[in-house]
Amino acid sequence: MAIGEQNNMRILIALGIIGLFGIITFALAAATLGTLNKRLDDVNQKLDGIQQR
C-alpha cells in the first residue's frame, strides 16, 4: 500500500468512528426525549384527574 492509501484508510476509519458516535448520540437523545415525553404525559393525566374532582 502506498502512503497516500494508508492516510486515506485512516481518514475513512476516523470518519466511520465519528459517524458511529454520532448515531449513538442521536439514539440516546431520542430515547431520553421519549422518556421525558412519557413522564410529562403521565403528569398531565394526573393533573387532569385532580382538576375533574
Fraction in beta strands:
under 5%
Low-confidence stretches: none
Average pLDDT, to the nearest integer? 93
- What profile does the largest beta sheet have? none
Q: What is the helical fraction, as a range of percent?
A: over 70%
User: What Rg, in angstroms, do the CA atoms define?
Assistant: 23 Å
SS-based structural class? mainly alpha
Distance between the termini: 77 Å
**What's the total number of strands?**
0
- Overall shape: rod-shaped
General description of the model:
The protein has one helix spanning 3-51. The protein starts with a helix and ends with a helix. It has one helix and no strands. It has a domain at 24-53. With 53 residues, it is mainly α. The chain crosses the membrane at residues 12-33. Keywords: Membrane, Transmembrane, Transmembrane helix.
In short:
Keywords: Membrane, Transmembrane, Transmembrane helix. The protein is mostly helical and 53 residues long.
Question: In terms of topology, how is this protein built?
Answer:
Elements: H1 3-51
Transmembrane segments: 12-33
Keywords: Membrane, Transmembrane, Transmembrane helix
What are its keywords?
53 residues; 0% strand; rod-shaped; 1 helix
